Amino acid sequence: MVITVEVRKLYKYPFERVVNIHLNKYPTPLEEHVTGIQTVDEKTDNISGIIYRRKIATCNNVIPKFLRKINFLNVNDVHIEEESWLDMKQRILNIKSRCLTWAQYSTFHEVSVFKQSVENPNWTEFHQKGSVIVTGAGKLNRLCEVFAQAFFNKGVKKSVNIMETILEQRCGHPFL
Question: What is the bridge-based pairing of β-strands 3-11 and 106-116?
């Protein structure tokens, strides 16, 4: 079964600020599970000006102990790859993320887009859609997927809250 999560958010802050904060928000004390981020590739296309980045995030494994009885789930760290394409001319940031740690047992993909709002050029629209399919846990596949859905729903809300908190700390309240 495919588990999907989707979120849309309008940040009432300019594109440059929102993107800068997103690209630099981790690690942060607001999220204890992300323990490190390493940029492993970065290049700018000389013709289009698009900046490509590939980062690897190291996160604590938050899978409950009873599910860690499945051998491949019993790891300390989880690694997430994030690829991004920043086009400042078009004012759009496209991001693709995937889990590297359990790639042979599950498929986790997340696609995110930040773009200048059509409603107001000083605002930023955010859209994220993710999916997970677990195939390597036998009879526990569905249980792992239910956990993943709950975790991703909670994680998306937390990520949006972190963005809002950092934006307000650095830029002030959007309605002022």
Answer: unpaired
3-state secondary structure of 156: helix
76 three-class SS: coil
Burial (CB < 10 A; 0-12, 13-18, 19+), residue 132, is buried
Instruction: Return the sign of the alpha-carbon dihedral for residues 30, 34, 40, 44.
Output: negative
Q: Do the bridges between strand 34-44 and strand 124-134 make them parallel or antiparallel, or are there none, so unpaired?
A: unpaired
Question: What is the phi/psi pair of residue 126, to 5°?
Answer: -125, 135
Tokens of 80: 């997430």
Reported as a single tens digit per residue, the pLDDT across 108-144 is 899 999 999 999 999 999 999 999 888 877 887 888 8
Handedness of CA 152, 128, 130, 90 (dihedral sign): negative
Neighbours of 84 (CB within 10 A): 21
What's the N-to-C CA distance of the chain in angstroms?
45
Q: What pTM did the predictor assign? A: 0.90
Per-position DSSP letters for 94-120, written without gaps between them = EEEEEESTTTTTEEEEEEEEEEE-SS-
